[in-house]
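quick one, 455 residues, struct below
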Amino acid sequence: MAVSASERDEVAPTLDGPVPRSLGFLDQGAFWANLGVSLLGFAGVLAVLQPAGAPPLTVAAAVVATVVGTAIGSAMVGLSAIPGARTGAPAMVVLRDLFGGVLSWIPSVLNVVQLIGWGTFELVVIAQAGTLALGGPTWAWVVGAGVVTTLLTLRPLGMLRLLRRVVTILVAISVAYLAWWLFTRPTGADLGDRGSWSGFWAGTDAAIAVAVSWIPVASDYSRHSKRVSTAFTSATIGYGVTQVLCFVVGLAALSLVGGDGDAVFAPMLAAPLGVLALLVLTVRETDQSFANVYSTAVSAQNLVPRADRRVLSLAIGALITVLALGVTIDDYAVFLAVIGSVFVPLLGVGVGEALVAHRRGRAMDLSRWAPSRPLMVLAWVVGLVVYQLINPGGAPVWSDAWSALREAIGFAPPSWLSASLTSFLVAGLVAAAFAALEPRRSAPRASTAAGAATP
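---
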């Protein structure tokens, strides 16, 4: 049966299909820029201003922590986009080389869990913003957003091109208008008198955590990049600039409502065109939930390669819609603390191992049954432990256990120590050492069926 041009330019239903290389810098840049502007970010900046397990920051400290954390986190996202652009493989398939075919199921399952969580929170915040703007029952907004999200995942590359051509322009106008309105209002409460700089690195870790949640999905999109260089720069610059802008606008809104995260949208709606601007951002927020649902499906395909991603997307979209009907936004900051501890050291392992692999001239093995590499998993666990000992976060039971362990061993981390940077470096160094100890492979390792992108 003949295949139409539009079908050839879309993602194949299964992993063994062709990989279109149709995304340029503007396509990818618009996608990442839109991901950086999030309704969750406006209220989520509270996780930076009031980091879990650390003293609250002043506004000045929170702004600096936002800039530093976003710069670090977005650079990490850019690095994680490179393997997909080089191999044409999605993120979890890339990990077959790092951990082995079977052991790559571990991060795949964890990624599925975190993406379902992110997708759920996105529907919750869409419903919250939509209800404030136009009213109506919350459940109706949740269901509507869930349906739209799921439909968008059926043609993912078409979604990315739509973002570049139409949505990005409307979002830029809306954010600029809201920023102008908020920064010209008299401040309702001086948040700067409520904190200090002592929790700076904990706040920085929170900003990093928001960005690095995209690390385990970046290659799902960069695999369609025409060039490796544009995959890196579009993610790093596009995402970094807009997350900083989003967080700073969120701080301005919080200053008008006394730091009440539940009321963060109220001063935006007070603007003459605030309802329209917020509606644009609410509709656009479906690109966040789209990315989470689509990447959940692609991650699941690492476990079941012949599964149709469209069927998986329908099932996952239905699941997060049901979950969003019973979850509140209050669980968001706790969720972030756990995310950072898992995926920052994962990237560290990848970078550390890649340095040794490059020196040895070793090709990648992305086959389903690639040899297991338990030492790389161990390096990842070491990085996770380091992160949790420095910053246990505020998750019930989980954080309490790490705090108890820290007290038991007499470890009191200094305030200047960043959990993200330290765990990244430790995991990378341990992975490099383990990789150097592994025996050289005599046979060249198979790559993916997809051709590599242009450097």
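Residues 1-6, 442-452 have pLDDT under 50 and may be disordered.
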